[in-house]
């Protein structure tokens, strides 16, 4: 029962989100214009309160003589004193004609002077083209949007575009609701002034003033103008306003009515005007931030680049970004030459697509022990037993001969493609280490003379000093694996960001990569798990690289290493974007640096670490500093899962348990997600993300899958998996 209620609620919420978003996006230009002009008009009462009171007095007998002489047919739609009370202006046939009260001669005739507020008012009322109906639609839409908005999210602050959108919407709710509500009431004629019935046909300003002379002191006149349904509105500086019909003249006692006063901000002079200006500014800001955040998400989710009519596909399977960078550089070079190209991660390519391209270029690296990177594995899973007969491809393999299975990942891909019926159009090109030269030759063989742009930077060689080593795990507990915090210092400033990799290759061994978890230019912090294994005789050995770092090397020793940029896994350069970090065990390594990078930065958005390990007292790595980061706000949220005690939870269970909040971060705030840990964590996290979108975001399974795939392609979701 509870589940059914929840599903109904989720469904309603999904529809409301849809309505809120598409009403705002569909009418965006109109809403922005109406709120902007409304905000400007809110300054009218402010300027009026600052202007000196009009004390012009006018000779009423001369006024009546002049206007009747000048406009015997009563065509003028507006009459107002001019030149300090010595003249009168009549507005007739779109012209402003000013007559002297003494003598009645025409002094000047001109088109209407430009009146800023009047023009803005025209825009606000009917877009200056008589389209009042569009403005009425905008008022209704805005009312619906502002009523729905607060139903979608609590006022939970987050330093992100949507965080501000939510909080501003809630804090200014009365104002934000009042403006469109009063606008809608005005379109319905509710709450306006009570006017005498327009009996006896229409009247004109000149006729009305002539008849009013008996009952109204016209020496205080400021304006007489045609008004609704043939009436005339007579305003005096007394201050008093009268409404004239063809048969009667009545003072407008109730003022313009509360609804109009609220809408125009005139109920308390300058102050109410300023209040409305704030309300209109918030409405404008809400519309703008809503649109901007939607556009940002859309742009990020469509990062796969595909030109119209592309006949060339370049697909990459990359772990740390080199293959991806080469693929993009190839695509750019071909585009500069005028060739339309599609460029995508292999995991985002449907195997059936390959047959649609004349040229298929594949760039695949190798990770782990001869493994294909994640993206390539996804492609192989999608390929299954499908056939690719007729497909011709060219493969560039990236690898490093120091590993046991040189270019093992690309070979696996090659074998699977051949087994499916595809054929290589040329022998596979294999790059050992820095791939620049091999990449050039490989491209040149297919596209002779192609101009190549800047190449991705090769790994930078470093000489570092082992500064300190701190044990992060409990001693004498066989259930947890020993991990250390290692700090290495450089002699010069290094250009890196947390999440980049330190490649450490002890003599004679393949390099091991360690995710960098620091953000200082001369210090590199690593979280290293000590690899242990027993040989056939039961003798215990340590992994070569981790053994040296954690046990073997003395403090102060020099080590040679290389710095490898891992662009795809770095946190977004815009630190304001909310960030969810999901780690298993030593996978917390880069996140220590991600958090450091946000420390003391007022512009940093919220961050959430979901961390899983075995035991709270055993291998909750960096516990003290993470708790301190949480306390001082550097880290916004910290969730843990312990697999060997209590409820025995894994990270995925924790994600589901906090699914409602996680969904909010992902869907409403457009949070970036970074996942780091052993390879099995990747699949588990992806399944949990899908569950969260289905259970709390109202997505169907298929929609969740497509959305997550979009995040991967755009870089909003990235994995760094090892082992
Ligand atoms: C953790 C790790 C494991 C690797 N394993 C292998 C391997 O088994 N065989 C190989 O030839 N190269 C291996 N390499 C080297 C990479 O394939 C090579 O550096 C490549 O240029 C990386 O490309 P990418 O940045 O697109 O992932 C490994 C590199 C790393 C970081």
UniProtKB/TrEMBL annotation:
One molecular function GO term is:
NADPH-hemoprotein reductase activity
Q: What is its EC number?
A: 1.6.2.4
| Signal peptide (UniProt feature, chain positions) | none
Q: Which residues cross the membrane?
A: 127-155, 167-190, 274-295
**Domain Flavodoxin-like intervals:** 312-447
Q: For this UniProt entry, what's an example GO CC term?
A: cytosol
Xref: InterPro entries: FAD-bd_FR_type (IPR017927), Flavdoxin-like (IPR001094), Flavodoxin/NO_synth (IPR008254), Flavoprot_Pyr_Nucl_cyt_Rdtase (IPR001709), Flavoprotein-like_sf (IPR029039), FNR_nucleotide-bd (IPR039261), OxRdtase_FAD/NAD-bd (IPR001433), PepSY-ass_TM (IPR005625)
Q: Which PROSITE patterns match?
A: FAD_FR, FLAVODOXIN_LIKE
Q: Which Gene3D superfamilies match?
A: 3.40.50.360, Nucleotide-binding domain of ferredoxin-NADP reductase (FNR) module, Translation factors
Catalytic EC class: oxidoreductase
Q: Name the UniProt key words of this record, in alphabetical order.
A: Electron transport, Flavoprotein, FMN, Membrane, Transmembrane, Transmembrane helix, Transport
Going by the entry's taxonomy, the superkingdom of the source organism is recorded as Bacteria
Q: Please report the stretch or stretches of sequence annotated as the FAD-binding FR-type domain.
A: 459-572
PANTHER family named among the record's database cross-references: NADPH--CYTOCHROME P450 REDUCTASE (PTHR19384:SF17), NITRIC OXIDE SYNTHASE-RELATED (PTHR19384)
Protein name per its UniProtKB record: NADPH--hemoprotein reductase
Provide the organism lineage as a comma list.
Bacteria, Pseudomonadati, Pseudomonadota, Alphaproteobacteria, Rhodospirillales
């Amino acid at each position: 029962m509870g589940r059914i209620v929840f599903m109904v609620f989720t469904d309603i919420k999904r529809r409301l989100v849809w309505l809120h978003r598409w009403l705002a996006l569909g009418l965006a230009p109109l809403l922005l214009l109406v709120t902007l002009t409304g905000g400007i008009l809110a300054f009218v009462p402010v300027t009026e309160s600052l202007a000196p009171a009009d004390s012009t007095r006018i000779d009423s007998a001369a006024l009546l003589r002049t206007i009747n002489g000048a406009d015997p047919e009563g065509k003028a739609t507006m009459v107002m004193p001019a030149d300090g009370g010595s003249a009168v202006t009549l507005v007739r046939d779109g012209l402003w004609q000013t007559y002297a009260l003494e003598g009645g001669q025409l002094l000047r005739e001109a088109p209407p002077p430009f009146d800023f507020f009047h023009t803005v008012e025209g825009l606000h009322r009917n877009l200056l083209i008589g389209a009042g109906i569009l403005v009425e639609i905008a008022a209704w839409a805005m009312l619906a949007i502002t009523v729905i908005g607060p139903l979608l999210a609590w006022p939970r602050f987050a330093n992100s575009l949507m965080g501000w959108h939510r909080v501003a919407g809630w804090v200014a709710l009365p104002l934000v609701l009042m403006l469109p509500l009063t606008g809608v009431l005005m379109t319905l004629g509710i709450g306006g002034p009570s006017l005498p019935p327009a009996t006896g046909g229409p009247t004109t300003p000149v006729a009305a003033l002539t008849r009013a002379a008996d009952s109204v002191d016209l020496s205080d006149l400021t304006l007489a103008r045609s008004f609704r349904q043939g009436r005339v509105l007579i305003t005096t500086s007394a201050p008093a306003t009268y409404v004239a019909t063809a048969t009667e003249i009545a003072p407008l006692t109730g003022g313009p009515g509360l609804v109009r006063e609220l809408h125009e901000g005139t109920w308390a002079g300058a102050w109410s005007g300023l209040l409305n200006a704030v309300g209109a500014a918030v409405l404008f800001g809400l519309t703008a931030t809503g649109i901007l955040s939607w556009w940002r998400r859309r742009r990020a989710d469509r990062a796969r680049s595909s030109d119209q009519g592309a006949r060339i596909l370049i697909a990459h399977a990359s772990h740390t970004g080199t293959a991806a960078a080469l693929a993009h550089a190839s695509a750019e070079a071909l585009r500069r030459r005028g060739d339309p190209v599609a460029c995508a991660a292999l995991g985002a390519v449907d195997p059936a697509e390959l047959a649609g391209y004349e040229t298929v270029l594949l760039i695949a690296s190798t990770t782990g022990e001869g493994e294909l990177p994640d993206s390539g594995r996804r492609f192989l899973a999608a390929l299954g037993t499908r056939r690719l007969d007729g497909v011709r491809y060219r493969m560039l393999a990236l690898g490093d001969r120091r590993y046991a299975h040189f270019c093992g990942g690309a070979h696996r891909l090659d074998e699977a493609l051949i087994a499916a019926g595809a054929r290589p159009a040329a022998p596979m090109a294999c790059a050992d280490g820095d791939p620049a030269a091999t990449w050039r030759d490989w491209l040149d063989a297919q596209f002779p003379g192609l101009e190549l742009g800047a190449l991705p930077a090769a790994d930078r060689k470093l000489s570092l000093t082992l500064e300190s080593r701190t044990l992060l795990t409990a001693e004498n507990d066989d259930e947890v694996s020993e991990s250390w915090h290692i700090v290495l210092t450089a002699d010069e400033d290094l250009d890196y960001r947390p999440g980049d990799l330190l490649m450490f290759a002890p003599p004679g061994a393949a390099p091991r990569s360690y995710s960098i978890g620091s953000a200082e230019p001369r210090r590199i912090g690593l979280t290293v798990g000590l690899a242990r294994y027993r040989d056939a005789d039961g003798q215990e050995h340590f992994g070569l690289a981790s053994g040296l770092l954690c046990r073997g090397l003395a403090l102060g020793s020099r080590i040679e290493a290389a710095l490898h940029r891992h662009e795809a896994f770095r946190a977004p350069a815009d630190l304001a974007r909310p960030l969810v970090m999901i780690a298993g065990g030593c996978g917390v390594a880069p996140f220590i640096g991600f958090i450091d990078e946000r420390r003391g930065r007022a512009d940093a958005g919220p961050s959430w670490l979901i961390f899983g390990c075995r035991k709270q007292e055993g291998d909750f790595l960096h516990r003290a500093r993470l708790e301190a980061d949480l306390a001082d706000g550097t880290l916004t949220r910290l969730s843990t899962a312990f697999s060997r005690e209590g409820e025995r939870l894994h990270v995925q269970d924790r994600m589901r348990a906090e699914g409602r909040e996680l969904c909010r971060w992902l869907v409403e705030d457009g949070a970036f997600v970074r996942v780091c840990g052993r390879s099995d964590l990747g699949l588990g996290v992806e399944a949990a993300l899908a569950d969260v979108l289905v259970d709390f975001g109202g997505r169907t399974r298929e929609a969740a899958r497509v959305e997550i795939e979009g995040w991967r392609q755009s870089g909003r979701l990235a994995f760094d998996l090892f082992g």
